[in-house]
Amino acid sequence: MSTINVPKREEVSTANQAIFDNLEKMVGFVPNLFATYAHSENALGNYLSLSNAKTSLKAKEKEVVNLAVSQVNNCIYCLSAHTAIGKMNGFTDGQILELRAGKASFDGKLDALARLAKNITENRGATDEQVLDDFFAAGWTKENMIDTIILVGDKTITNYIHRTTKVPVDFPEAQPLEAVEG
After folding, report:
1. Is-contact 85 114, C-beta < 8 A?
2. d(C-alpha 114, C-alpha 42), whole Å
3. DSSP assignment, residue 152?
4. Which fold has domain 59-181?
5. What share of the chain is helix, strand, coil (3-state, %, to 5)?
6. Which of 60, 72, 3, 15 has the alpha carbon at shortest distance from 40?
7. Over the range 106-118, which residues count as b (16 or more CB within 10 Å of their CB) and which as e?
8. From CA 55, how far away is CA 60, in angstroms rounded?
9. 59 CB contacts (<8 Å, ≥6 apart)?
10. Which terminus of the chain faces fewer neighbouring Cβ atoms within 10 Å, N or C?
11. 1, 109, 113, 126 from 137: Cα distances, Å
């Protein structure tokens, strides 16, 4: 049960209403988690600026990080949203499950990225040296590493907001990883 309401358009500031309108046009709806950011005058705009900022990671690569981080942080909202987005980026159900587990047997370079994202998140930034060496050996750059860390932070913000607010998931709900691995 949600502890925090999902604000409606008329309950948020004029600036946030404009963002809601843009989200409605771009996505077709205002995701509950994004609407929840609008309890703050500035958080939604700030978050979307961070989330949409230029990066060396392609959309598909970003989903690798989003899925691994959201699994470590056990955020059902983000797992559900990024499962849907992962499918839109061409990942299969089986690949998405692997990415959630922090690996990618189907692609060595994405495997190194998934392992790095998982390791950074699990160790709160105290990354294992071997994981980092493997990341670089797979062909990633220092720029990719920094952009991955930024994305881990970006996703951790949304994970924490959902874990705190417990707003309803408005995407097809992802199965618990244990249920599908079992």
Report:
1. no
2. 31
3. H
4. AhpD-like (1.20.1290)
5. 65, 0, 35
6. 15
7. ebeebbbbbbbbb
8. 12
9. 89
10. N
11. 45, 9, 11, 19
Helix or strand (DSSP H, E) at 22: helix 14-27
Name residue, tokens 């978050």.
47
Our CA dihedral for 143, 74, 126, 150, rounded to 10 degrees, sits at 20
Q: What is the pLDDT of residues 48-103, one digit of tens each?
A: 999 999 999 999 999 999 999 999 999 999 999 999 999 999 999 999 999 999 99
How many whole angstroms separate alpha carbon 174 and alpha carbon 180? 10
Task: Delimit the domains of the chain by residue range.
Answer: 9-51, 59-181
Helix (H) or strand (E) holding 133: helix 129-137
Percent of the chain topping pLDDT 90? 94
- Tell me the DSSP string of 26-90: HHSS--HHHHHHTTSTTHHHHHHHHHTS--SS-HHHHHHHHHHHHHHTT-HHHHHHHHHHHHHTT
